[in-house]
Every structure is written in structure tokens, then in C-alpha cells.
Amino acid sequence: MLGFSPFDVFPAALFAHALLIHSWQRAPSVRAAALAGFWFGLGLFGAGVSWVFVSIHRFGGMPAPIAAFATLAFCAFLALFPALVGALQSRIPATAALRATLVIPALWALVEWLRSWILTGFPWLTAGYAAIDSPLAGFAPIGGVFLLSFATLAGAGLLWCVAARHGRWIAAVAFVVLGSVGALLKGVAWSEPAGPALTASLLQGNIPQDLKFDPGRYDRTLEIYGRLARQSQGRLIVLPETAAPRFLDQVEPGFLRHLEDVARRNQGDLLLGVPLRTGPTSYFNSVISLGTSRQQRYDKNHLVPFGEFIPFGFGWINSILAFPLSDFTRGSTSPVPLSVAGEQVAINVCYEDAFGAEIARQLPAATLLVNVSNVAWFGDSLAPRQHLQIARMRTLETGRMLLTATNSGITAAIAADARVIAELPQFVEGKLEVSAQGYRGVTPYVRFGDWLAVTACALALAGAIVLARRASSG
């Protein structure tokens, strides 16, 4: 847990996984290995995603005992994935060193990738995020966060080999080589600036979540964003997710004209997060553009289960939760960048930036990434910092700068090398004026998505199995 934001202690992630590898090496049975993985996962997710309780209890209205049970059940479900790794690795005959450095790292990354798909996916706390500020970060533009997971677990396995004296000196040299290769790759320029930089204004209204959809608060919300927009100097102005907390056809035309006038005054465009409906039961979590360019729109595709759509057979959940707009329609799976403020902007909404391969769909055409979010759902918890860490990974994978505008924080500008250039404090009203640079170029990750990492892990696993069989037969 200490390897992830807000702690960002990468060695802690290495040592924690090395200890898990040690427990798996000593496990007397498949069941024992699975249980070790389960308890590791329950500790990781129990500490790391406990903010789910805040969302469903404080803002969703679920009674505290039921919310606590639901949060525990969710964490226990996520813990099944490390348990699966434990069970699978114990069934593969291999030497201790091969198990630690190839079998477990490959299985871990593959199962994390599986976790990003099951039930629409929840790739939060993927091991590779802990390596974002380490020498291993150079692998991100090649194979994304899952290749970083493989490298992180391989590094932990090599540490275990050194401590357990399984080819100690070879493992030590391999550990140094792994880090050195990653560090050298960090020096590769996968993208280059595309045109001059522009000024961008990122607005943070800090509307309390329990008041955001309160009709009595609506006028005050529009006043805040209208004023912040008017004070902005950016050629590109970005408002958060659902900044206008009513369907677009219900938003006062005067407010929209005001935003458009501000954007035109700045000789640019404004991006507004707003729900939009096209029929009685068809509505989208959208971002629209206003300003000098033609009006365009992006509809969120990767929706959050229960928060933004109700999975089939779970309609009864609505009787417990009080989430507004909890059954959105999915947007296109093949979105195109918005042509605004002289840039080709790839939009993603909140949770969508946890799925790197989906962000990469809009590249290489996109020159700039923009995320709009409302992380106020999770209160003063670990979630906003974790979300910022996830956004930083997307910049490494794509070689693009990312701007993120949020309701209550963390609103920030992230360079193409994952450095946070500037950010607003959480839970304050304000605007962040930054210089935003567009980029062009294609990283291997943009070209191949997660498949390069998945293929590499599958080949590593197959190779380890072949070597183990040869050793046993010889």
C-alpha cells in the first residue's frame, strides 16, 4: 500500500511483493498459496480502496452497517485475484528462482490485466503504478502499466533470490540490469512538441457533493463557474465533470452564452462537463465544447457499475442507493479527439483514465489529453491522490501532456514525463492557469496497447514452463 499515492514509497512495494513471493515459495499446498494471496489482497484493497464506503454511505445513502459489509465484500472480491495468482503459480513446476523471477511476475501482470476486464474492470492499485517514479518507469511507453507490474514483480523476485541465496550474485546483477534498462528507456523521447504551447485554465468549483444536485444550490453553482470562467485567461478553459448539474436542455441558455462569449473573448474554446439526453431513457455523461470552434461533444463510454449504470439483474440496488443519474448510456467505443483551441484533445471522464488502452484509442491523432472528474464522491480520502497517480501513468504511456479539472481536487497539469507541473489544493474554489504543450509521436504502447505486455508475459510464462519441464526431465 505504501508504494501507491499519497505515500509513493516504491521500495515498500518491492519488499511487500518479495515477502509475498517468500510466503508462496514456502506454501505447503495450493490452498495455502491461494490463502496467502487472498490475505495479501484483502490487506492491500482493504486499506487502498476503503473510500468506497464514503461513496456508498455518505453520498449514496446506504446504511453504515450495510455499506461496511458491501465495502468488505468488494475488497474480498478483489482479493480473489492475488489468490488466483497464488493458486496458479503453485501448480507450475519450476525452480524457486524461476518461479520468483518469471512465473509469479508473469501471472501477476496477466491476472491484473484480467481484473481490468472482469465486470467492466477495476484496475485500481495495479502494481505498476507504484513504479511510476522509479527507474522502471521507462518501460511504461513500451508496454504500459501492466509491463511495469511485470517489471516490479520481477524486481521483487530478484530481491527474494538475493535474500534467499538462490543464485545471489546473478540475481543481484540482474536486478541492477533491470533498473538500468528502465532508466535508459526513460531517456528516450517518444514524442515531440507539436506547435506552440497554449494557456489553459482549469476550473475547480469545490461544490460539496451532498449539495451538487440540490436544486436549491443550482444557481449558486452556475454563478461560481460563470465567475471563474470570466476570470480565466486560457485559450482552453476546462470545467469539471457535470459542472452543470442538469441536463443540457435544462441549462439556462444565458449561462451557455456567457461561457461561449468568454471562450471567444480568449480566442479559444471551453470544455463543459454536463449530462445530455437524446431521449426519455437515453442520456450521457458528456463534455461539450463552446467557443470559436464548431460545437463538439464527447460521451463517456466506460461507465462505473452501480454509480453510472445498473448491471443486469441488480435493479433492486436502486432501492438502497440514492445516486443521481445512475443509469447513463454508453458513448461510442471509437471516440475521436475534439478539435479545440488549436489542439486535438482526447477527452476522458473520471474513472476512464484508469484504462490506458482505451485512452490510446484516440491517439496518435490527439495532441493533448484532458480528464474531467468529480472525485468529491470519495470525500477526504486516498482516492484523489490515487487518481492523480493513475493520470500520470497515462502521460508516460502516450507521450502526451494531461490536464485534469475536478470538482473538489486534485485539479492539475501533468507533463508528458509524468511530472505534476502545477496543482490546486483540494477542497478550495479556484482556477489553475498553466502552459499546455501539445505533442505528436507514437509510443509502442499507443501502437499496441496492452497486447504487447500481455504477449510478453504469456511468452515469459510459457518459457518458464518449458524450462521447468526440461529441468525435471533431465
**The CATH C-level class name of the largest domain:** Alpha Beta
CATH superfamily of the largest domain: Carbon-nitrogen hydrolase
Total strand segments: 14
Helix segment tally: 14
Q: Spell the H/E element sequence.
A: HHHHHHHEEHHEHEEEEEHEHEEEEEHH
The largest pleated sheet is described as: 6 strands, mixed
CA radius of gyration: 23 Å
Structural class: alpha/beta
Q: Which strand order spans the largest sheet, edge to edge or round the barrel?
A: 6-5-4-3-2-13
Helix content: 40-55%
Mean pLDDT: 92
Query: What is the annotated CATH architecture of the largest domain?
Result: 4-Layer Sandwich
What is the domain total for the residues? 2
In brief:
The protein is built from 14 helices and 14 strands. It has helices at residues 10-26, 30-48, 51-59, 64-91, 96-115, 140-164, 168-186, 209-212, 218-231, 253-265, 356-359, 383-398, 444-448, 451-473, and strands at residues 192-193, 198-204, 236-238, 269-279, 282-291, 297-299, 338-340, 343-349, 368-373, 402-406, 412-414, 420-423, 430-436, 439-440.
Describe the 3D structure.
This protein is 46% helix and 15% strand. It is built from 14 helices and 14 strands. The protein has helices spanning 10-26, 30-48, 51-59, 64-91, 96-115, 140-164, 168-186, 209-212, 218-231, 253-265, 356-359, 383-398, 444-448, 451-473, and strands spanning 192-193, 198-204, 236-238, 269-279, 282-291, 297-299, 338-340, 343-349, 368-373, 402-406, 412-414, 420-423, 430-436, 439-440. The strands form three sheets. The chain has a six-stranded mixed beta sheet. The protein has a six-stranded mixed beta sheet with strand order 7-8-9-10-11-12, covered by helices on one side. 53% of the residues are buried. The model has no long low-confidence stretch (mean pLDDT 92).
